[in-house]
Records
---
Amino acid sequence: MIDDNSKKHYIAIIGGSISGSEAAFILAEKEYRVVVFEMNDLPYGKIEDGLPKWHINLRNKQEQNIDEKLNHPNIRFVPNVKIGRDISFDDLVSNWGFTVVILANGAWKDRDLPVADINKFVDKGLVYQNALLYWYNHKHELNYKGSNYIIQDGTVVIGGGLSSLDVMKLGMIELVQNALFKIKGLEIDLFTLEKKGILAVLNEYHTSLEELNLKGMTLVYRRNAMDMPLKTPKDTTEDSVIKAGVVSEKLLYKYANNFMFQFIPMSSPIDKIESNGKLEAVVFHKNKIVNKKLVALKEETFKLKTPMLISSIGSLPEKIIGLPYDYSILKMKNDNGYRVDGFSNVFAIGNAVTGRGNIRESKKHGTQMTNKIIDNHLTQDKFFENWLINYNNRIKSEVQVQIDDIEIEIQSKKIMPNKVIDMILNKTKTLQEKAGYKSYESWIKLKTPIRLEDMSKN
Ligand SMILES: Cc1cc2nc3c(=O)[nH]c(=O)nc-3n(C[C@H](O)[C@H](O)[C@H](O)COP(=O)(O)OP(=O)(O)OC[C@H]3O[C@@H](n4cnc5c(N)ncnc54)[C@H](O)[C@@H]3O)c2cc1C
């Protein structure tokens, strides 16, 4: 069923990945017109640049799903435009004529490691997870121009959670793959190492970390294995939480065994030791849990010497000037957390709201919140009327041309004036032309990078 209110609205979505494409599709199917602004060539977000490249089936399935959604006649995809850099948020909200702006820009800023002054070692001994995963997923591409990393034996990783386990796997695969080639002359592809596990591959070739001259990597987590958010509890009851904890613990030790890394629980970084301007070691303090709360044992410390430190302690939404934040989290109104504070027509979905989540949660949040935006705002005449009044007042004060025409059109038809629609179409077309974009399908074909072949199937 087509909602009559649809023709009144033109909606901007920032970010085209899991949650952005979900929202765009729901709106487009209801005949709302949508522009999706995406900062990268491709709209796949963490699926392309975060999820390690061995997740071939998951990546292909999710990217195909995003394509099916965004390749819609009511959606205009505008790549290579970063809101906050290429267009200011103020400008987008105030001057472009969109009735609603939806933030689906995910969480791309690594949380800062809580050690004073440690960031001076970024890319000089310290690597943050988002940069590392970007390199890992793209380094095989012929025209890759980003940072380059060489995983060092003895690397320490700080974190806990599924993505930290991916970081451990990635690092151990790199180390062992290189050592197998260098020392044993064996060329084992990453997909085989990931699927079988390092222990199984080393056993198969009758070798060991020792023979490969490797110590391996160490994961340090502030709590116990059972507290790791590896398995989501079914509900909030104590029983479900304990059951999920048991699964998380089993998972962690299974990974540590199969990928041959060390695990140090109940420890948090507190300081660093440097030598000749290089990061030499990290100092940790132990923790204990009292009444389910983490208590720091500041006197009980130990240090780990490391040639490379990887921080995998989570991501936050990258701040966009013009939006309100509570520390690093987007400040939301209290009505179930989808309306951004201080705006009547700006909403946020997916990882952009919490900085956390997985594909399922991002999709679900995208769907639920978009339906709420439609039911509670877009289909309410009052919402559109308010937008009209605001828009009218703004253009009256800012642009003294063609106002009379627009006013007449607004007041008589109570729909979005053609001049506003034309303005959105013209401005977005200029941006598409600047990027060299012609159609969604041809663009995706042109920009999809070379994929590695999964040799484990041969
Ligand atoms: C290492 C790792 C492993 C993971 N493994 C899994 C897994 O196995 N299973 C699972 O379910 N989930 C996994 N996830 C999580 C999953 O990838 C994310 O939860 C999901 O992709 C989030 O979707 P999103 O649309 O909210 O955000 P994103 O995917 O981050 O999309 C945000 C989009 O917005 C764009 N953007 C950002 N800022 C701007 C701007 N200012 N202007 C214009 N565009 C902008 C970005 O380029 C991006 O396309 C993993 C994540 C990581 C990092």
---
Amino acid sequence: MPNKAKVALVTCREFPSLDGYDAVLVPRLRAMGLDVDAAIWDDAGVDWDSYDLVVVRSTWDYASRRDEFLAWARLVPRLANSAKVLEWNTDKHYLKDLEQRGVAVVPTTWLEPSMGLDARGLHTRMPALGDFVLKPAVGAGSVGAGRYSANDSQLRGRAIAYALRLLAGGATVMLQRYLPAVDTVGEVSMVYLDGRYAYAVRKAAMLTGPEQGGERRYQSEQLEGGYTPTAEELALGDAAMAGAMEALGNPLRPFLYARADVVPAADGSPALLELELTEPALFPELAAGGLDMVCRAIAGRLTPV
Ligand SMILES: Nc1ncnc2c1ncn2[C@@H]1O[C@H](COP(=O)(O)OP(=O)(O)O)[C@@H](O)[C@H]1O
Ligand SMILES: [Mg+2]
């Protein structure tokens, strides 16, 4: 009997047995005849070369150690999604690449460290009315994202101080209007497997206030499975996927996994909040047949193109 194919699902120290949404993949993949390990990306004891496939999954801690994470990814053979994809996708500047290709992204003001902005410069760039969001261009899991109110001088001061702090640390700050429909309609996450739309879930709003000093606000109980995207939402997800493939020079194989997160813009039409190609939670159990779809996509990578 031939040896079983070996698959590593990559995680971080905080979740040695993977995050709950990914842990459910392990028994299912084993039942499909694969040899599966959860492996921590920065564990020096792992022999990445011994795997037929390495899939990035619950690496929640990469944002504060991006360079180290990408250096690791470049050294792993048979990594999905590839190191090149991870490099492009772990910095939200990729949204500019997509916008240039005609994808409707959430309107964003990019505050770059190189602009040398002071408190006054930031003040003039922030909206005069309504709520707005600040988030670092390298960030995940809502860590570092905060919601502020332009009309409240105390919150405005806090926003300016926070932006100054991020810029001083060399981070790009993304400034967006708070899209109020996120509170009512929510955020739609469309999962793509092997480049094709698979299923979708709907997420409630995540940001209730200012940045919380690195605290994660990830609310699994606010997820609704079995959502059917509108034709407009699907078209946007497809355009984001096509734009990403093009920006990356049309790789030979489509992305193993992707999640397009869209929210209603001010005029009600969907806008792309992010196209997650690094470690998106795929919520496989929240969609009928989702677990099978994800496991089949992974197993499908074990046969040559
Ligand atoms: N412009 C915005 N308007 C309303 N909510 C937002 C906006 N930007 C972010 N959020 C909220 O913050 C969460 C995290 O922001 P996101 O851009 O998805 O970054 P992350 O990479 O941390 O997931 C989103 O899921 C959404 O609930
Ligand atoms: Mg998000």
